[in-house]
Write a structure and sequence with these properties.
The chain is mainly α. It is 54% helix and 6% strand. The strands form 4 sheets. Strands 1-4 form a two-stranded antiparallel ribbon. The chain has a two-stranded antiparallel ribbon with strand order 2-3. Strands 5-8 form a two-stranded antiparallel sheet. Helix 9 packs across helix 10 (275-292) and helix 11 packs across helix 13 (349-368). It is elongated and about 80 Å long. Mean pLDDT is 84; it is low at 1-12, 110-116 and 122-129.
């Protein structure tokens, strides 16, 4: 293969990392950094992503030093190293050392020292760097969110994608002031809420007429009990951020577009849509956005989603008896059927009236939650 023409031809100048039993590449790098710099080096996720990019691009030997489906070092099942020695070029190692020095606040007062090899037969104790999945599991436990293993894997993948975007663009927070952890927690809560919505949809497909199933927003409930209008508005906007993050890309523009709605459909199906299916889903997505897009920019933003959630929570309430803290199955059904009117060729007057009522509630929510 042509790339071999550019491989380092002097393996004797490579840095040799000792891979112990059960070690990954990150543990070996961490151990070598601790020994070379004389401190317990603690890199954050941003720094580790930079280190991983350097290791992935490095070609220290002609032989492949890892196994797995691809070269994504951030996934344990893809980038697997064997016990023994892993080689890194001197140039790549220098870059990694500089990242560690910058993170630890170590100033270069003299030329870089020579390689300090790990003493043979010793295994220094080093702090294991948390994988994305470990971070996610801890986050969910702290928030009391229970999700399936596949959902956790999905959130971990989102964590890696957003972290890479922030790292590549040197971001601590995005334009909305959200950190990686903020967005991942929003995504996790969005996933949990979406699972309940999926149960609504399943019941609807099975022609269930009534159900005790409902979504309760405890923050809205508390705000109503306290009579705190600011907290009430904030709770709906927070739920909206969670809803948007469920669909949003790693770049995170804070809105949902047609393509993202179609992509969610494919994700839930676990396969690509056929041409016929894609045409239908795309049409439904356009209609959905047309209903909810109050500011007419062809996307659904946080304020519009907050209004949507507010309208659903109120659409079937009796006069003077607001239940804004919850969305019942019947309210969800009414909202979906109301928004579906744009796809009907000859809607009945009853359907038109239902849509008009929902649309008014939507616009009231949009103004009221500002």
């Amino acid at each position: 293969m042509l790339y071999k023409l550019y491989i380092n031809k002097a393996p004797d100048v490579n840095i040799k990392l000792n891979i112990g039993t059960g070690d990954g590449i990150s543990q070996a790098i961490d151990r070598q950094l601790d020994n070379e710099l004389g401190v317990d080096v603690k890199l954050g996720l941003k720094e580790w992503n930079c280190v991983f990019d350097i290791v992935k691009a490095d070609k220290a030997t002609q032989q492949k030093q890892y196994s797995g489906a691809d070269n994504d070092i951030t996934k344990n099942n893809n980038y697997i190293v064997q016990q023994g020695v892993y080689e890194i070029t001197k140039n790549a190692w220098t870059q990694i050392v500089q990242i560690a020095k910058q993170k630890m606040g170590i100033t270069d007062s003299a030329p870089d020292s020579e390689e300090v090899p790990v003493a043979e037969g010793t295994t220094p104790v080093a702090e294991e760097k948390p994988e994305a999945k470990d971070v996610v599991v801890k986050m969910l436990q702290e928030e009391g969110i229970e999700l399936s293993e596949s959902d956790i894997d999905d959130i971990a993948a989102k964590y890696n994608a957003i972290s890479k975007y922030y790292s590549d663009n040197n971001l601590e927070k995005d334009a909305r002031g959200l950190t990686v952890d903020d967005r991942i927690l929003n995504y996790a809560k969005g996933v949990a809420a979406h699972k309940l919505e999926a149960q609504f949809a399943e019941q609807y497909q099975n022609d269930v007429e009534s159900s005790d199933l409902k979504f309760v927003n405890s923050d809205v409930e508390q705000a109503i009990a306290d009579g705190d209008m600011d907290a009430f508005k904030a709770a709906f906007h927070q739920s909206a951020r969670e809803y948007v993050e469920l669909y949003d890309s790693a770049e995170g523009d804070g809105a949902i577009d047609v393509n993202e709605l179609v992509e969610m459909e494919e994700k839930e199906l676990g396969r690509a849509l056929t041409a016929e299916e894609k045409e239908l889903v795309n049409s439904l997505a356009i209609n959905r956005i047309a209903v909810l897009d109050i500011n007419e920019n062809n996307k659904i933003d946080e304020s519009e989603v907050a209004a949507y959630l507010w309208a659903m929570s109120r659409i079937n309430d009796e006069s003077g008896k607001s239940t804004g803290a919850d969305i019942t199955y019947s309210e969800w059904v009414t909202a979906q059927e109301s928004m579906g009117i744009l796809g009907l060729e000859n809607p009945t007057q009853e359907e038109i009236d239902k849509y008009a009522k929902f649309n008014q509630a939507l616009r009231n929510g949009y103004e009221g939650l500002k």
